Amino acid sequence: MSSTGTVARTDEDGARVGIRGWAALVVLMLPVLLVSIDNTVLAFALPEISLALQPSGTEQLWIIDVYSLVLAGLLVTMGVLGDRFGRRRMLLIGAIGFAAVSVLAAFAPTAGLLIAARAALGLFGAMLMPSTLSLLRSIFRNRDQRRLAIAIWASAFSAGSALGPVVGGFLLEHFAWGAVFLVAVPVLVPLLVGGMWLLPESRDPNPGRIDPLGILLSMAALVPIVFAIKSFSVDGPNLAAAALFAAGIVAGFLFVRRMRRVEIPMLDMTLFRRGGFSGAIIVNLLSVVALVGFLYFVSQQLQLVIGMSPMVAGLALVPGMAAMIVAGLCVVPISRRVAPHIVVPLGLLLSTLGYVIVAATANLNSVIWLLIAFIVLGIGIGAAETISNELILAHAPAEKAGAASAVSETAYELGAVLGTAVLGGIITAFYRGALVIPDGVPSAIAMHARETLAGAYTAAQQLPERLGAALWDAAAAAFGSGVVTTSIIGAGLVLCAVIVGFVTLRPARGDTQR
Fold first, then answer.
1. Tens digit of pLDDT for each residue in 477-511?
2. Phi, then psi, of 85 in degrees rounded to 5
3. SS3 178
4. Helix (H) and strand (E) counts for the chain?
5. Distance CA 438, CA 467 (A)
6. In this predicted model, what pLDDT tens digit does every residue of 353-388 receive, in sequence order?
7. Is the CA virtual torsion 464, 469, 474, 479 positive or negative?
8. What does the DSSP assignment read for 104-138?
9. Half-sphere exposure for 12 (CA within 13 Å, toward CB)
10. Rounded distance between C-alpha atoms, residue 128 and residue 75, angstroms
11. pTM for this structure?
12. What single-letter DSSP state applies at residue 7?
C-alpha cells in the first residue's frame, strides 16, 4: 500500500501469525462489537426512550452524545495509560466496567440518570477502544496480514451496527427500552476468558513519567470544544458556546506546546506532520460524521414518519451495513496495487451519492430509496475506514501504538459527536423553523411538539383525532424539509473528505507501493 510520509519501521514482511493470532483477533472484535451495538441500538431506541422519559430536545441529544463526549476526552489519556501499564489489562478493566454500567443504564428512571450512566459508559469505553487497535498492531507485525486484520476488525463496527437495530428492535417489541443496554453483558464472559488466554500483554518499554498536566490539558481541549459545538447546534450562536470553544482552543495550544517541550511526550506531535497520518485522521473524522448523522435522522424517519417498528427499521438497514463490511474486506487486495489517494476518494464519492439520493427522494418517504442510499453510503465509508485505520497504525512506532490508536479513536468518537450535534442539530433547527402548528393546538402541547419529532408524535396522541392528525402531518412535513437540507450538507462534508484524501494521501517521494 502506498502511504504518505515516513512509515514506521514495523517489519513490512515480519513474522506471520498462525491460528492463535487470528483467534486473538476474534477476541479483539468483541469489545468493538459491544460498543458499536450499544451506539446503534441507542439510536433506534431513542423514540421509545423519548416516549418513556420525556426528555427535552437538549436532553435527547445529550443521551446520545454524552458517551462520545466523555470518551473523546479520555481516549488519549487511556491510550497512554495502556502503553504504560499494559494494553490487555486496560482492555479487561474496561470490559468489566462497561458491562456493569450497562446494567445500571438499563434501569435508569429519568433522562438525567440515563445521561449519567452514558457518561460512565464513556469512561470505560475509553479503556476499551485504544487497547483493541494497539493490541492488534502488536500481534500482526506483517503488514499484509495487518491490513486484512484491520479490515476484519473494522467489520465488527459495521456488524455491531447492523445487529444493534435488529436485536434492539426485537427487545423493544417484547420488553421495556432498558433491555437494549443489556445486550452488552453476554459479551463480557468470552471477552474475559479469551482475553486472558489469547491476548499477549504489551506495553511501551520506555514509557517515561506520567504527565498529569498533559492529561488535564488534553481533556480541557476536547471537552469544551465538543460541548460548545453541541450548544451552538442546539441553541444557536451564544456567548457561552463561544467562550467554551475559545477555552478549548487555548487548552489545545498549550497541550501541543507541552508535548513539543517534554522529553518523552504522551503524544508525539511529529506524527501529524506526516500526510498519511493526519490525512487518515481527517478522513476518519468526516466519514464517521457522515455515517452517524445519516443514522440519526434515518432511524427517526423509518420509525416515526414511515411507521416501521424498531426491529423492521433495523432490518431495513442491514443491507447497508453488509455493504460496508464487504467493501472493507474487498478493498484490502485493491489497496496493495492502488494508492490510497485514489481508492479513498473514489469510495467516498460513492458515499456522497448516497446523501444526494436521500436529498432527492426525502419527500417520497420511500424505504427502497433509503435502503439504496445507505448501501451506496456504506460502500464508500467501509473502504475508507479500512485504509485510513491501517495508515494510522503504519505511521506510528509500535511502542506508541496505544497513543496513536487513541488519536484514531478520538477522531471516530469526535465524528460521532459531530454527526449528531451538527447534522442532528441542523435537522432539529430546520424542523422547528418549518413546523406550522395548526390552529386550535394548546400552547403547552405546541411547545412540546416543537422540541422533537418524537415530541410531536406524543403531542398528537393527546389531541382529538382530526387535530392530532393535522399536527402530525405538519410535523412530518417539517422533518422532511430538514432531511433535504441536512442531506445536502452531509454530501458537502463527504466531498471535503474526498479532497482531503486526494491531497494528503499521495505517495511521498521514495515510498514504494506494494
1. 888 888 888 899 999 989 999 999 999 887 665 45
2. -100, -10
3. helix
4. 17, 0
5. 8
6. 999 999 999 888 888 999 999 999 999 998 888 888
7. positive
8. HHHT--SHHHHHHHHHHHHHHHHHHHHHHHHHHHH
9. 14
10. 9
11. 0.77
12. P
